[in-house]
Amino acid sequence: MTYLNLRLTIILRRIDMKKIMGLQCKFFAAAFLSAILCLYVSGCSRTGNTSSAKGKGYDTVVFALMSFNNIPGDVTKVEEAVNKLTEPKIGVDIKLKLYGPANYAQQVSLAMTGGEQLDIFHSLGDFSQIISKGQAHDITDIVDTCAPDAKKVLGEKFIKTGYKDGKLYGLPAYKSYVLQPQFIYRKDIADKLGLDMAGIKNMYDLTPILEKVKAAYPQMNPFAPIEQGNTQIPYSDVDYLTDDMRSPKGVLIGDNTNVENFYNTEEFKKSCVLMREWNQKGLISKDAASSTSIAVELVSGGKAFGFMGSYGYPPDDTAVEISHQTGVEMKSILIGDAPVMATDTVSAITWVISSGSRHPESALKLLNLMYSDPDVLNTILYGIEGEDYVKNTDGTVKYPDGQDASTVPYTAQLSCGILGNQFIQYIMTGTNPESLKIEKEWNENAKISKAFGFMFDNSSVKTEYSSVNNVINQYLPGLRCGSIDPSKGIQEFNKKLEDAGLDKIISEKQKQLDAWLAVNK
Amino acid sequence: MGNKKNIPSWQFLFLALPGIVYLIVNNYIPMLGIFLAFKDFNFSKGIFGSAWCGFDNFKFLFKTSDAILMTRNTILYNLAFIVLGTILAIFVAILMSELGASLKLKFFQSSLLLPNLLSWVVIAYICFAFLNSESGFINKTINRWLQIESVSWYTEKQAWPGILIFVFLWKNAGYTSIVYLASISGIDKSVYEAADIDGASKLRQIFSITLPLLKPTVIIMTLMAVGRIFFSDFGLFYQVPMDSGALYSVTQTIDTYVYRGLMKLNDVGMSAAAGLFQSVVGFVVVMLANGIVRKTDSDNALF
Fold this sequence. Notes:
The complex is a heterodimer.
Chain A (H helix, E strand, L loop, with lengths): L16 H4 L5 H20 L13 E8 L9 H15 L1 E8 L4 H10 L6 E3 L4 H6 L10 H4 L1 H12 L3 E2 L2 E2 L2 E2 L7 E7 H7 L12 H11 L6 E2 L13 E2 L12 E2 L12 H16 L13 H6 L5 E6 L3 H12 L3 E5 L8 H5 L2 E4 L6 H13 L1 H9 L7 E2 L5 E2 L36 H11 L16 H19 L5 H15 L1 H18 L2
Parallel strand pairs in A: 1-2, 8-11
Antiparallel strand pairs in A: 3-13, 4-5, 6-13, 7-11, 7-12, 9-10, 14-15
Chain B lengths: L16 H12 L10 E2 L5 H4 L1 E2 L6 H4 L4 H32 L4 H15 L2 H12 L5 H9 L14 H26 L3 H9 L4 H25 L7 H5 L9 H4 L2 H9 L5 H29 L7
Antiparallel strand pairs in B: 1-2
Helix pairs in contact in B: 4-8, 4-10, 5-8, 8-10, 10-14
C-alpha cells in the first residue's frame, strides 16, 4: 500500500526575531498591529460565502480525492458529467479537488484550518487522530437516511470500525482489506538457479535461497528493503491497536487481551537476529537502514533479487504490477500466515464528512453513491468514456489507443480501491477478474482480532508519543535491517523506550481497551 | 543626509514602504500563530474556540532523555559554525581581495559560491557518493589505496561532527565571504599605501589594518547568527546523514527532533510551541550578546 507510505510534513513556523528588532518606533508598531488585525479579521470573515450552485439551487459538495496519476488541470468536464447523474438522484452538485499522495493530508488540514469549504475527505491510517482533533462530523443520526446503501454494502462487521464511543464518524472504503505478506522476486534468476520457491513457508526459509543467489551473483545484496529502513518482516497474529504498523507502541499478540511492548516479544527478537545474520552474510545491503534506494529501483538496477511487501491482491496480480514498475519479469509468493484483521486493517482508509461542512447530509448522500452507483464512481475514477478511457466488449476498460495514465486528459484511476466500493469499480484490461472473488474471500475469512473495532485515542499521551517516536526512529530501522547487533541493541532500545514513557502509553492503551471490551464483549 | 532641510524626514520613510509591507505580511501576520502554542487545537472548535492548555504543548521538548542531547548538539554545532565559519570566510575574503579585480577573482568567487546554490538534498547525494559503504569513493578508492578496511560511514558516529562541519563550511563559506569582501573593498586604499611606505609586511597589514576594520562587520554578522543559535539547518542534519538512526546521538538537533516526533502526530499546537520556544531563546540570547557588546564597545552594538 504505497499510499500509506507518506511522510506528513509538519509546517514549522519560524519567526525571524532579528527582523523584529529593527523596529523601535512605537507609533509604527501600533500602526502595524492595527493593520495586521484588519487583514486578519477580513481574512477570517471572507469564508462565509454561499456554496450553492449558481441558480440551480443544488448544494455543492467539495470532494477531496487523492490521485496517484497526473493531477489534471481542468476537472469541470468530469464534474459536469457527475452532476448530470447526481442532480436527478440526490439533488447535489460535486466539486472535485484532486491532490497527490504526498500532500493530501496536509492540503486537507490546511483547507480546514483556513475555513475553506471542504466536505468529504479520507483518512490515511490516522482515522483516530482525525476524530480526536475534531475534524470529523458525527454522522450517527443521518447514516440511515442518507447512506443506507453504504451501510448495507459494508455490513455490520466493517462499519463497526467507523465508531468511536458509540458515535459513527466515518465510512471505511469497501475494498480488499487484508494485506497478504508476499515475497516478490526475479523470475529469471530463480529459474536459472533452479530455486525451490514453492517450499518457502516463512522468512526463515528464505536464508538458503538468498545464499544461493549471493553465491551466483556476488555483487548483489539479494534482499532489498521495500522502502528506507523497512524490511517488512511479517508478524502474524499481531494487532497493532491502530498504531502505525511501522512504529507500533503497544500491541496485542494472539488471543491475549494484555497490551504488550512489541519490542520485548520473542517474535520481534527472533526476526532481528535473522536480519543481523543476513546483514553479516551480505544478503542485505550494509546501508539498508539509511539508504533511500527503494526495492523496485534496486531490483530493476540488477542489485537485488527480491523483497517483501504486503499487498491486497493475489500474488499473480502483484507480480504483474511490480513487473511493470521494474521492467523485469517478477514472480510473487505468499509468505507466512495472513495477518489478523484489526480495526485499522479496515479503517486505514475511512471516508469522513468534514466537521466544517455546511451540508453534511448532502455530502453523505453523495458519499453513499460511491458505494452503490457504478456510473458515478467510475466517472470520478476514470473520467469520460471515449476521451479518458474506452470500454472493451467484456466490460473491462483501457486507455484510448496511444494514450496512457500520464497523457489522458483526466484519470484518478487506482489499482487498489480506496474510493467507495472497489467491487463495483471497472477493471483495467490485463487484470484477472477472478481476483476480486479471491479478495472478497480474504475479507470474509480473515481471522478477526479480539479488539476489532477498538480505536486508541492518543491525545492524553501526546508528549510521550513524540518522544517514543524519536526513539523508534533511532533504533527500529537499524534492527530491522540488521545493522544493529540485537544482542545488545534490543535491550538498549527498550531501556530508551522506557525512559521516553512507553509504559505510560501502554497503560493508557490498556485502560482504554479494557473499557472498550467491557462494552463490546 | 541633511543638506536639503526642506524635505521632512518622514517622507524618506516611503522609501522603506515595500520593505515594511514585506515585513508585515511575512513576519508579523504569521506571529498571530504564536497563541496556537498555548491551545489544544481542535478543528471543529476552530482557532479561537479551542481550549487553552497552558504550557502542555511545550512539555514534549523537555520531558525526554534526549532534551539535553539535542540542545547540546544544536548549540555546539552552531557555535562551531559561527566561529569556524567566520574565520574561514574572512580568510577567503582576504585571499580574494588580494587577487584584485581580475578574471581569476571572478572564477574563484563563482566556484566558491556554487555549493551555496545547491539544495541539501543534492548535497546529501554528493556526500552519499563519497561515503556509501559499498560503492562510495572513499571506501572504493582512497581506503583501497591506503589499504584501510571499508568503513560503514552511516553507522560510524565519531566521524559525523567532522563531516557535518566540513559540509557546512563547504556550502556556506563562499557566500559569507562576500559580505567580508565587500567590507574589505570599502577600506580606504591610502591606509595600505601609507603602511607600505612605512615598510609594513603584507601580514602586518592584514593584522593591523584589515582585521581591526572588519570588526564591526564581524560583530553584526555574529549577532545575527547568535539569534538563530537554537535553530538548526534542518537539511544539513536530516538529509546529509540520510536520517540514519545510528547517528542520532550526534545529528539530533531541536529541529530534527521536532520533525521526527511530530511527523506522525501532525499536531499544530506542538509545532507552534517548538517554534516559539526557539525564537524566545534566540531573542534572549541576542539581547544578552548585544548588551555585552554595548558595555564593552558601544559603537559597534546593533542597537
